[in-house]
Batch of 3 targets.
Target 1
Amino acid sequence: MPKTKNWQWYLEENSEFETHMHALSNTYFSGRTQFQDVGVVESPVFGKMLILDGDTQSSQADEYIYHDTLVHPAMIMTDRPKKVLMLGAGEGATLREVLRHNTVEKVIMVDIDKEVVDLCRKYLPEWSDGAFENSKAEIHYMDAFKFVNESKEKYDLIISDLTEPLEDSPSYKLFTIEFFRTIKEHLTDGGSYVLQASTTDFHNLDLHTVMFNTLSKVFKVTRSFSSRVPAYDTMWGFIFCSDKNDPLLITKEEVDKRIAERIKGELKYYDGITHLHMFNTPKYLRKAIGKQTRILQEKDLLK
């Protein structure tokens, strides 16, 4: 047997019946802000990691997978987006990726927890890579629900990188049908909305299917897509929404063409082939979404 160090371990509960364990080589910060528990730690496998309320948010080794998936398909599917609104995304990596697109003139980021943003800027500067100082970026530290409801502006793309809508989470009220309708009112004609939408593994996809069916009441085009994020130890789901743009109808050649036209430098994860992989969802997920749709229709909850 190989020799092992006496590691300190971080245990993350993936579901009621399984746990993912990370050995830790360093702890940079552990504490609580006004809104949530925060950990900034280091893993010998994944490098530095941000943990909020016991859930891994991103890791140094593979954050590009998550952020490429969240940002670039929606940016590519939206016709030359100039104004982008981001909800959450305290690490700054979502902001970093949006700013890579040469069509962007203004990005507004809204995050309720300034302490988390400050911790990320201090301990995880690689995530933002100078994005917070970009002249196109405008940062607001406030409740995203309040910001959206009070905003008079329209946006070409709205990106939601909020924590999952658990009942004790500050983001809970941002996942209701009423809020999604408000989001739609703040989109330009031909605009899009994209959000992180929990796990899509076969045994842990109820939250994703609920979110999908809620959004399908609001938008004409609602598409589930996923990428495997190794630090999460699961397939992670996202949902793309629009009334005009459909990511199932674009070719891999057109995706690559738009990337070449709009983005300077090479993306680590996303391209035309990866786009097809993301949006061609597995049969079990399509069946789960369809099953819940029928249940809601029978209960007269899905109009």
Target 2
Amino acid sequence: MAEDVTSVETETVAATAADEAPKTETTSDEPKTEAKAPDEAPTADGDKPKAAKDDDAPKPDDEEAAKASKKQSAQARINDLTRARREAERRAERAEKELADLRKKEAPDPSKYEDPDDLSNARLNHTLDQREAERKEAEAKAAKEDAETAVAEAWQERVSNFRETATDFDEVAYRAPVNDETAADIARLEEGPQIAYYLGKNPAEARALNNLSVRERAVELGRLANRLSTPPPRKTSQAPEPVKPVSGNGAQSSSFDPEKASMAEYIAKRKAGWG
């Protein structure tokens, strides 16, 4: 800025001096040429050089906008993959249902047919049913593979986003002691990377998930996803918690809080008979 002010002052003084100097007329027949300012001098190709502008440098707002656009694109990709996965799962379910119906059909019993032509037709239909069953089996297998591919790609998109927050994701999440069934359930969840990262830091809860039934595991993963996706409430007071009242028999009441308890504590309490 100081250099700009000095330059302006210099140009002003020079202009004033030029105005005050006596002017003389020239009688030369040569055409007059106007001197061009240094910044207007033509380059070798005839174009004027472009001065560097500070506006060309990336701005923080532009970087934030680029990050937001990238995140939005990734989420759109995840949404597309989720729809593809659900459609593939529906195709697999339909194919498996039709396959089960075809497999219920038994081969024709010759003793039940008096006409040889009827028996021949029944055997032909049974052969066609078997071929259709093979086709449905292949269709169900292909649909399941499509669903698994969509799950894997969506998982990678979510992990890529979450790595920006947790740079040590790979070192923490992939050491969680979960079995294949639990890992497959986690990979399908929107909050899957957060859950895997949490379980990597809490291996006892990861092992507890492995011992649950399919339905129980789904419930626990839902609770965990909700807890990790909900920001903690703001504390309005730093005062210590009040002293817990003593029950009539002189023993303190239970301090178990199902909203704050870990998964391992919750399961242990349930197995102990807590309802």
Target 3
Amino acid sequence: MRLPQVRIERQGGTEVKWLAQAAVLMPGTGDFPAGTASPFLLQPGAGARSRLPYFQARFARSQENWLGLKKAATFGVSAHYGRARITTPSGDHESDSVGAALDWNLPLAPRLSLLGEAFFGRNLAGFQGGIFQGINADFADGNGGVLVPGGARPIGSRGGWAQLGFTPPGADRLTLYASYGLDDPRDEDLVSIPVRDWRARNQVFTASFLYKFSPQFSGGMEFRRFETLYTQSGRRTNNHVNLGVAVSF
């Protein structure tokens, strides 16, 4: 999401390079307030109503000539903090939006690379975390086997993605990719009154290729399969094919 922000960066090092980043951002919690007369009329969401911006930071370290491959490997750690305010029949409730992540970009061999990210946190719908589920406004707690209203509760989640890239020998313009992604909200946070069909787990499998017709023009195709588990209706799947081109200048 291209959120308006003020960001400070500092970097240094030669053989081992480092990058430190800190930012203050517009709070975007991923919700769409009801009663909007027009999609072009911006209404304050739960993040804006908290009157607190997002705070984020990341530190990354890059090692040149990783494993003697003459390519750089990068590891990064990042953190996020924000707040959201929602309105329920019992009144206004504030909930923190908290997250941490580890990212990597690693050359494994002259023609093989691995990149990805792992994360955990709560109330991360603004970043598509929790499968676009940030706060359970109707959370219910078990009391002797009977569900009782528990107020609003942030939905915790963890997951990540990884992508393996391979350039076949003798075909330097072609790169093949295989990817996997997971988003797994906490089951304990998906209990509500009334009972809802929450998204409990999401997996994505992809296979794709990218071909460079010239240094400035590339094209490719991707097959993607979604598998989503719902708390009431069970597992649902979706398959689709993406075609794309890129022009650089």
